[in-house]
Sequence to fold (314 residues):
Amino acid sequence: MNDVTILGSGAFGTALAVALAANGSVTLWGRDIDWGRENPRLPGVTLPDQIVLTNDLASATKADTILLALPAQALRSFLDQHARRLDGKRLVSTAKGIDLQRLTGPSILIAEACPNATVAVLTGPSFAADIARGLPTALTLACGDDAAAVDLQKMLSTPVLRLYRSNDVTGAELGGALKNVIAIAAGVVIGAGFGDSARAAIITRGFAEMTRLATHMGARAETLAGLSGLGDLTLTCTSAQSRNFRFGQALGKGEEFDPSTTVEGAATARAVSALGVKLDLDMPIAAMVAKLAQGGASVKTAAESLMTRPLKEE
Ligand SMILES: NC(=O)c1ccc[n+]([C@@H]2O[C@H](COP(=O)([O-])OP(=O)(O)OC[C@H]3O[C@@H](n4cnc5c(N)ncnc54)[C@H](O)[C@@H]3O)[C@@H](O)[C@H]2O)c1
Ligand SMILES: O=P(O)(O)OC[C@H](O)CO
Fold:
């Protein structure tokens, strides 16, 4: 039996497997894992021998520590089907989104489906391609159980993957989810040719929006200012490696975007917009991204309506 299993063999699950192979054997499970030793979602990376590839969920879930590297909108149905195999384990979520139906982050979905599990979140600024190439990366490992947090931090750190510990699970996971929404907005700004000054404004006001919602939902403001919030927001709003940013850029230019690409911020913008209404919170950027992503507004109208809101204090 291997110590660590990763469920989800997309770009991120595979990259984490490559990184953790530095510490020993890792099992990588995927429903579509028939591509040999190179994942087409992570081209140019040959998987080391320490990674055991499998599509057998029963054997993969024998490990005590299981990382869930599925997209946020796929997690609920996966848990509905497979929670009995996962309950009682240490479950580390890496998904960056808010479930559109339940309006909660992955940690709550997991805790509800697996009430005897220890739930943690691994998040922060990290492109799969960077991690897989062994580039230095710093992440946040958040867990409400301090002893488990210390153990997971040690187990999942490597010489080039440095994990910082937190007990603010809500803050860590909301930072990762909400930055994707703002990254789409930043992409729209750049795609539409509004310039770098406008992007800085979107990042800053987006951060204010992220903090407003997250603290309302129980997060600590300093968590939002850490790797999982501001750190990831900075990365994703400024790099064309980001799928959320590129999706926004395509919207800004009025171009098509490959619908098979995982763009977590699109559904999460709708979830955030719904949360804003439900909790009576002002979330203008998220609401606009939700509209744009569904084709419900033009970029020109979106920019005008954000710029002509009533003037207020910062
Ligand atoms: N790619 C990155 O750089 C990166 C970095 C940090 C975090 N993340 C997060 O990791 C999560 C996964 O992203 P990714 O980049 O690996 O996506 P991806 O598009 O590369 O892969 C998604 C994988 O999930 C699988 N999948 C989807 N629905 C499934 C289901 N119901 N059952 C089983 N498997 C299912 C797909 O088959 C695919 O292998 C996202 O929440 C993303 O935000 C990604
Ligand atoms: O490519 P994105 O936009 O999904 O971003 C990947 C990671 O979340 C960056 O930390």
